[in-house]
Design a protein that fits this description.
alpha/beta, 24% strand, binds adenosine-5'-triphosphate, Rossmann fold, 4-stranded antiparallel β-sheet, binds magnesium ion, 2 domains
Length: 322
């Protein structure tokens, strides 16, 4: 088994909003192996970007630990960590400094981390642009003269300039047209394989994740609902929330449609979640226990974990059907 590169334990983040406290992340634990792609999936507001910001040291956790190769990360992150752990952000329109040329943006990590002597910067940046499918004619362009897809390619080149071990990709293609999206995802996969990078891939789009990540982790209201190998979770989703998500993924074939879990209930919020399961207010199978007590994440099978009091019941149901 490969080494664990990043480990997050019981990570919790609260924000003060007026006089209230919002728990954006609530006891999240995960491990990312070297050379692995782990997808974090969840709807808007589930805490995906908060997780990224905590790992990057942009925000401080309220509680919990973040370890890199077994060592707790210091805040602010030391320079060598800022090199190893790169970030490609959600929005291609705000990610690049509009006053810097492509060359200046991509050369910045070379300068900051002293990776290349200044006389070779142009050559190195041209090489990095080539890696992401952009020609040397882009060197002296400004972001306003680039399409969304080209901007994301430049952001990827800038991340690669640092020679990272791990990249956090926060919805890297969600702002792009579908055809552009597919090409950028293909590029990201190529690059991952070529440099054996580890990706923490954040997405709300299960259809994208399915072909991209080896493992997935489903977040709901800041908590992990289910995690496991992508194929296993898609074939045997156990948590009612995961089933709800999968029920709304467009299917490609009739075989797939037949396998798809059905969603028997018109989901609506009945009660706000108290201390219990965050999904209890929308869950058709919720019992009193679910409102009262938060289920912990427990293994159903090796490396397939589910946070549901009635997980065992759903596992049986799944195995009857398949
Ligand atoms: N700086 C902040 N101050 C107050 N609340 C915040 C802050 N950042 C995030 N939140 C809240 O925390 C929750 C999680 O937000 P987050 O941005 O992590 O979600 P997300 O999963 O990335 O959503 P999206 O898919 O829309 O990007 C939300 O309820 C959000 O309003
Ligand atoms: Mg986000």
């Amino acid at each position: 088994m490969a080494d664990i590169l990043l480990e997050v334990r019981d990570l919790t983040k609260e924000f003060a909003v007026g006089r209230k406290r919002v728990r954006a992340l609530n006891g999240v634990s995960l491990g990312l192996e070297e050379g692995e792609i782990l997808a974090v999936v969840g709807e808007s507001g589930s805490g995906k970007t908060t997780l990224a910001n905590l790992v990057l040291g942009i925000e401080m956790p309220t509680y919990g630990d973040i370890l890199y190769r077994g060592t707790p990360l210091k805040t602010p992150r030391p320079l060598h960590m800022r090199r190893r752990l790169q970030y490609v952000q959600q929005n291609p329109w705000t990610t690049l400094n509009p006053r810097r040329t492509v060359f200046q943006s991509v050369a910045l990590p070379l300068a900051v981390h002293k990776l290349t002597p200044p006389r070779l910067w142009r050559e190195r940046v041209a090489e990095l642009l080539h890696l992401v499918g952009l020609g040397p004619e882009f060197l002296d362009r400004y972001p306003h003269a680039l399409s969304g897809g080209q901007r994301q390619r430049v952001a990827i080149a800038r991340a690669l300039a640092a020679q990272p071990e791990m990249v956090i990709l926060d919805e890297p293609t969600s702002a792009l047209d579908v055809s552009v999206q597919a090409r950028v995802l293909g590029l990201l996969l190529e690059i991952q394989a070529r440099f054996s990078l580890s990706y923490l891939f954040i997405s709300h789009d299960l259809a994208v994740v399915r072909n991209f990540a080896r493992r997935i982790l489903v977040l709901y209201r800041g908590q992990v609902m289910e995690t496991g190998p992508t194929e296993v979770v898609f074939r045997n989703p156990v948590h009612p929330y995961t089933r709800l998500l999968l029920a709304s993924v467009p299917v490609v074939s009739e075989e797939e449609a037949a396998l798809r879990p059905s969603w028997p209930w018109d989901a609506q919020d009945r009660l706000g979640p108290g201390e219990g399961c965050p999904f209890s207010s929308r869950c058709p199978w919720a019992q009193e226990l679910c409102w009262r007590e938060r289920p912990s994440l427990v293994p159903i099978q090796k490396s397939h974990l589910v946070a549901c009091h009635f997980a065992e019941l759903f596992v049986e149901e799944v195995s009857h059907h398949g």
